[in-house]
Inverse folding.
């Protein structure tokens, strides 16, 4: 399983109000910004900013991080072999395929396999 990027989640009421300070701290513009269901998201540096009404944000609070991976199927195989379980089945979003999984120790994480265009644009070549 190859992890390409990990985002710390920041929960905010207003995306536009939160971005100026993050631009200053990170020193760059958001790499991604999009709407999903009733929330708005922006990826800036190593933060995934999630904005919307508290009730809408609560639907996603069970995950402690968003992890971008090269192969979602390999993640599922590795996690289940280690005693983890998929808690939200695979679905698609504007960025690619994703699912939520609980690790054997109890941590719940969102795993995303980005569409190739995002990997090419955002992940530095190794």
């Amino acid at each position: 399983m190859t992890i390409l990027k990990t985002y710390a989640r920041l929960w905010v009421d207003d995306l536009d109000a939160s971005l100026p300070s993050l631009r200053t701290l990170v020193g760059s513009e958001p790499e991604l910004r999009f709407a999903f269901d009733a929330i708005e998201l922006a990826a800036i540096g190593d933060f995934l900013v999630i904005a919307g009404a508290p009730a809408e944000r609560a639907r996603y609070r069970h995950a402690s991080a968003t992890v971008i991976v090269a192969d979602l199927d390999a993640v599922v195989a590795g996690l289940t072999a280690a005693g983890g379980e998929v808690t939200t089945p695979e679905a698609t979003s504007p960025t690619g395929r994703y699912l939520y999984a609980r690790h054997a120790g109890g941590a719940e994480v969102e795993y995303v396999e980005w569409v190739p265009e995002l990997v090419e644009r955002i992940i530095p070549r190794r």
Notes: The chain has one domain: 3-122. The mean pLDDT is 95. Strands lie at 3-12, 32-36, 39-44, 47-51, 65-69, 85-93, 96-102, 108-114.
